[in-house]
Design a protein that fits this description.
The chain is an alpha/beta fold. Helix content is 42%, strand content 12%. The strands form six sheets. It has a six-stranded antiparallel beta sheet, with helices on both faces. The longest helix is centred in the middle third of the chain and has 20 residues. It is globular, with a radius of gyration of 30 Å.
């Protein structure tokens, strides 16, 4: 276990955590693991906190501030931690509002307002509002996990701010507390209300008097220097103190980045939802031409006008998203223009917009999209931009740092051309995208923070970029706030008088500088506290997996996570990631939290015991190894692989958990069990079953699956094979699960393949993909198993024979894990059992649906007039998707609904392991199990995965059906 290192200014984190605990502040953590998880946000910066607090109630927040004030410790308020500027990390105490302090307090559809706690996720508010035909206007791309408190802190804007405004424009009232404990309710104020408050003479009155005096002394400056255009977010929003803006203190506090007060509740304005929407996609020769077109397009009533360039789309590899990109008009850059209105008026509005676009220079094509599904797929490209842009097409790393500068839209084309030139002069590159309709650009740039020279280039570039933005009348920040990334540069944008006003404003609220110090005023240096720096040498950590995409560097692999937090999405929404977070809502159990711990492990500062770290082990314990993150994470963090690597080293030459032996070695243990299945089944269902489970590390609540009377291999090798096979041979991969527990699935596969005209073969001997050893981190054994498997299949693979897998997890292992596991193996005397052989096997491996759709396109599957719901196995989701299955079901006439259910929760050995049962069941209850129970009688429940079918059978009164079984039954 890591020792607790001293924190800020030598303060002992244990002392701080103890004081907070005694003060009854909610959940308090001062251990190394929690501090490591909260040391970074989505920016370039890192500050290790002294403690992390999860307040549950308003009282907890007030108590935490009082305790920190007594200790003289600063406080950083945090929502989802998706800040790209460094304002969600701090050296003192972090208050995370997202886990518990996240309720919707009231929603008034008549007044079109809602009152919320700061930790509520935007999508949760939108879901509640949708039933009343209203919405919250600001909608950043992180809407599935960002909190209202964080949006208030940054003055978040989002895609539709062109029509619905920034967060500040949609705030009615705030209740806040200062560092000194003064609770204030803020909103717009009349002159009488101001006079009455000042006359009261209490803490609130003194604060209002200070702010009112500041405004009255500086009316001309506030009117001319601030609020010049919508995306002028940098600095404090002092323009809201003007009398013509009704001295709106709540809106003035928006965008203050937690430096003035802590939000206790917010009342927000809601807007009517448009009855229908249409997306117009416009292609342009380049991003500059797209930017030049913006002013002409803004003459039309748009809901959104977003831009992205080919450099962003070129990094997409996920099949579904890649397919959506390939449907875009041929171009080097695109504008996504969204229109709202009635279904009758939208076509004419869309045509008028495309006509206007045709008069702009550089247009290469256009398309009007009214299908919501297709529009959603295209918007996903834009929403994933922050993650996608962190890897350039050549695989190199890219970083925030000049993330969201904005200029008046009329200046966008000129600014973008000069900005591109500035990149070239500094020999940098990046993918540009953003809110073109409001002149706000996002870009991730390939800064090299690992060298002194690269860090110096970073500082020089952002300074030059700031001057360029100011020359175009723009703002250093257009929505993400200044944070540590831009606060030091504010004097380039504002004169000394305005900077002095900012400091006076800060001092009125927080004279002790106890809230988020170093942001906006008295700033930290832009190149200080960098997360990646040449001054820190990572621990030398040799790995089994090659991590080629990260140049063989495990440290680089762990910093692949840039903190955008998509893994903190609380509902599936078309993806799998991250089932454990959805259950616990704990950062520790998110992909990001685990990646951050692993990265801190490689540094050896907070997590000090490397591969032996208990903190990392405990955080990885609830990782289901579902591989959802490998495809759903915009930057491809593959936590399942990281977990396998860690477990391999953590337990090297040590006693492992019992489940690693009982389930990790299940393919081998199943062989003797298959010789006496009745005896084994009797034992596992007898009064001795609890003892068996306890000895095997199996959850007491789980029913142990029953071994089949006859294995598939035993049946297959004694049968009389079908003659013919006009399409040639295929090798049916005989996975351990179906072979020993559900051989009917493999028999059905044989029937379907032979009906389709294939000659079915099976591998010699008894082979295994090694998956159970991989997931339990027994990589030495897994490599030996994998080599034997590759060698056994090599003759068929060399002959061009497809290898067909029916169990998705094993098929995915053959496709992705084995090539990685055996990478670097020399072929030498072993023939084709090395890395080359594994890669050849991966190319030859297909699913049943892929084989029938692509290798037998003229085969007509049996017609089935039926309805079905289908659960896509997580590993299939990560490697091949459900496209071929959907095509096949359509050909069969099956009315299928693919569930947006995420992981089933069982996930191989995970759901059987002691201590995992509750999380396993809760994950299944998120969506899959309720959908199965709600399915109409006679509806087929399609689930190719053994784990999925087992979870369904053990938690519902329905049974899952494999696609092969569905077809075989229809064949008769």
């Amino acid at each position: 276990m890591s020792t607790t290192a001293p924190g800020s200014d030598g303060v002992d984190p244990a002392v701080v955590a103890d004081a907070l605990t005694r003060a009854d502040c909610g959940e308090v953590f001062g251990d190394a693991g929690r501090r490591a998880q909260y040391a970074a946000d989505a920016s370039n910066y890192r500050q290790v906190p002294l403690a992390v607090v999860f307040p549950r109630t308003r009282r907890h927040v007030l108590a935490a501030l009082a305790a920190c004030r007594r200790l003289g410790v600063p406080v950083t308020a945090r929502g989802a931690g998706t800040s790209t500027s460094g304002q969600a990390v701090g050296p003192g105490v972090v208050l995370d509002f997202s886990r518990h302090f996240n309720r919707l307090l009231a929603l008034d559809p008549r007044a079109r307002t809602a009152t919320v706690q700061p930790g509520i996720v935007l999508d949760d508010l939108q879901s509640a509002a949708a039933g009343h035909g209203v919405l919250f206007g600001a909608d950043p791309s992180t809407h599935s996990r960002c909190t209202l408190g964080g949006m208030i802190g940054n003055n978040a804007c989002g895609t539709h701010s062109i029509a619905w405004g920034r967060t500040a424009d949609n705030i009615v009232e705030l209740e806040v507390v200062t560092y000194r404990g003064t609770v204030v309710r803020l909103g717009e104020m009349t002159q009488d209300e101001i006079d009455q408050a000042i006359a009261a003479g209490d803490d609130r009155g003194q604060l209002i008097a200070s702010l009112y005096g500041l405004a009255q002394r500086n009316l001309a400056v506030l009117r001319t220097e601030l609020g010049r255009f919508p995306r002028q977010v940098s600095g404090y929003g002092l323009e809201h103190l003007l009398p013509e803006r009704r001295f709106h203190l709540a809106r003035a506090l928006v965008g203050s980045e937690g430096t003035l007060a802590v939000v206790l509740s917010a009342t927000v304005r809601l807007l009517p939802r448009p009855p229908a929407r249409a997306l117009v996609v416009l292609g342009y020769e380049d991003a500059c031409a797209a930017a030049d077109a913006v002013p002409a397009l803004l003459e039309h009533p748009l809901l959104a006008l977003e831009g992205l360039g080919q450099a962003l789309t070129d990094v997409v590899t996920r099949p579904g998203t890649r397919a959506a990109i390939d449907t875009l008009p041929a171009a080097k850059a695109w504008l996504f223009a969204e229109l709202g209105g009635t279904a009758d008026e939208l076509p004419e509005c869309a045509r008028a917009l495309t006509t206007a676009a045709e008069r702009t220079a550089g247009l290469t094509g256009s398309e009007i999209i009214t299908d919501p599904g297709r529009a959603s797929a295209l918007w996903r490209i834009r929403e994933d931009g922050a993650g996608l842009a962190t890897r350039l097409p050549d695989g190199s790393e890219a970083w925030p740092g000049w993330e969201d500068a904005a200029v008046p839209p009329a200046q966008l084309g000129s600014y973008l051309r000069q900005f591109t030139g500035l990149l070239d002069r500094h020999r940098l590159s990046g993918a540009v995208y953003g809110h073109f309709g409001e002149g706000c650009l996002h870009v991730r740039i390939d800064f090299d923070f690992t060298t002194e020279h690269g860090t110096a280039v970073f500082r020089a570039f952002v300074t030059d970029a700031a001057e360029l933005v100011v020359a175009h009348g723009g703002s250093l920040s257009g929505e993400h706030g200044d944070g540590q990334a831009r606060s030091e540069l504010l004097p380039l944008m504002y004169g000394p008088g305005v900077i002095a006003l900012f400091e006076e404003f800060k001092n009125a609220w927080d004279p002790d500088n106890g809230l988020n110090p170093g942001m906006i005023v008295r700033p930290l240096p832009v190149d200080g506290n960098l997360r990646v720096t040449p001054h820190r040498t990572p621990l030398p950590l040799a790995t089994v997996f090659p991590f080629h995409a990260d140049d063989g560097d495990f440290t680089k692999a762990t910093r692949r996570c840039v903190g955008v937090g998509k893994c903190r999405t609380a509902a599936p929404r078309g993806g799998v990631m991250c089932p454990s977070y959805r259950v616990t809502r704990d950062e520790k159990h998110s992909t990001r939290g685990r990646a951050r711990l692993l990265h801190e492990m490689t540094r050896g500062e907070v997590i000090t015991d490397g591969w032996r770290s208990r903190e990392v082990r405990d955080a990885l314990d609830l990782c289901l190894s579902c591989k959802g993150c490998s495809t759903d994470c915009p930057v491809g963090v593959d936590m399942a692989t990281y977990k396998s690597e860690f477990l391999h080293h953590h337990y090297k030459r040590r006693v492992r958990p019992a489940s690693h032996y009982s389930m990790g070695w299940l393919p081998l243990l199943s062989r003797p069990a298959a010789r006496m299945p009745r005896l084994v089944n009797a034992l596992t269902s007898s009064r001795l079953a609890p003892l068996v489970k306890r000895l095997g590390g199996i959850a007491a609540e789980r029913e142990i699956p029953r071994f089949a009377e006859q294995t598939f291999l035993s049946w297959f090798r004694t049968r009389t094979p079908e003659t013919g096979g006009r399409r040639g041979p295929v090798v049916l991969w005989v996975d351990s699960f179906n072979n020993h527990f559900t051989p009917d699935v493999l028999r059905a596969g044989v029937a379907v393949l032979e009906s389709a005209g294939f000659q079915v073969r099976v591998p010699d001997g008894t082979q295994c993909c090694g998956l159970t050893w991989i997931t339990t981190g027994q990589l030495g054994v897994a490599r030996r198993i994998a080599r034997r498997t590759v060698a056994a299949l090599a003759p068929a693979v060399r002959a061009g024979v497809p290898v067909v897998g029916l169990e998705p997890s094993c098929t995915a292992a053959l496709r992705s894990d084995l090539p990685e596991l055996l990478d670097g193996d020399g072929d030498g005397d072993r023939g084709s059992d090395g890395g080359d052989g594994a890669r050849a096997l991966a190319r030859a491996t297909v699913t049943l649906a892929e084989l029938l759709v692509h290798h037998a396109p003229d085969w007509q599957p049996p017609a089935i007039e039926a309805r079905s719901i289908s659960q896509t196995h997580c590993h299939q989701h990560a490697t091949s998707g459900f496209g071929a299955d959907s095509t096949l079901l359509h050909r069969m006439g099956v009315d299928n609904t693919t569930l947006d259910a995420g992981c089933c929760g069982l996930a191989g050995n995970f759901g059987f392991e002691r201590g995992h049962y509750d999380v396993s069941v809760a994950a299944g209850e998120e969506a899959l199990l309720p959908a199965v129970r709600a399915a109409a009688p006679g509806t087929y429940v399609l689930a190719d995965g053994f784990s999925c079918r087992t979870q369904i059978a053990q938690r519902t009164d329905r049974t899952g059906t494999h696609l092969a079984q569905l077809m075989a039954r229809a064949l008769g």
